[in-house]
Fold:
Amino acid sequence: DAVIWKPSSSTPLCAVAVHNIVQQVLDEQKAPPIFGLVIGDRDPVGEALLADRRIPLVSATGSCRMGRRVAEVVGSRLGRSLLELGGNNAIIVSDKADLDLAMRAVVFGACGTAGQRCTSTRRLFLHEDIADEMESRLCQAYQSVSVGDPLAEGTLMGPLIHGGAVDEMMSALENIRQQGGEVIFGGDRVTDGVAADGHYVQPTLVRARHDMEIVHEETFAPILYLMRYRDLDEVIGWHNAVPQGLSSAIFTLDVQESEKFLAAGGSDCGIANVNIGTSGAEIGGAFGGEKDTGGGRESGSDAWKAYMRRQTCTINYSKELPLAQGIQFGE
Structure:
């Protein structure tokens, strides 16, 4: 079947480059024109694709708001949709954790790609016995995160995708302060030593409460909410209280804690990791999430099923006609 790709309108040049690479391979294999690229905004291009009955499946990656629109329009014509949407991903660090291991996972998960992965770490639950140490170590680690040109050697965190993303981050931080949160590191724009027209920000650490409204929202930026807990059952409830359900992780050397996190009453996310962060190399697995994340799986064992048309066939090789449930019908 042919594929029509509509990339994000924020990254058209990347899409053209990828399309050219793929098309070169297809041409070498003398394949028919099965891969098309269409660039444009949501309306009219995106809306036209959603409504077109000739497109049996729409696979969409993006915000929860976008996914609801896809599900509404495609579902109204009884088409199929595969949705991979927002993630408000959390790590639980137990008092029985290897803190060195947890530190590396948290810093990479929250700062890598400037917090612009669907699996970026956005919430961090720290057991009260190790919370002070982890907070101190995180502040030290964040001071060493170099922000700048992502193509320059030594840069650990590049820019946000556009000015609107910077504005959304600053708005979220203002909401955090209004709701009683405390910014303990970062929170400002970066202007020194970077391109004047770039959208650079500091990675940010915030002391927060699990029930703050802003904590239940996904901000696509390097903001990490730090929260303390005492009881594992309690923190699993806090962990699952957000609308999104993509990736999750627990750091513990206690097998009972890890098994509780992975059990039916544990993490309600599509991805649940133990002693590895939320933003790992999980592409070989059934990548996707539950709840407002959309339920779709974009790789691994389940993805191929979404892109196929199932057909059940029964062939009778005899001269007799068996009937359902052994019914006798006439001669």
In short: The longest strand covers residues 121-127. The chain has a mean pLDDT of 96. DSSP finds nine helices and 13 strands in the chain.
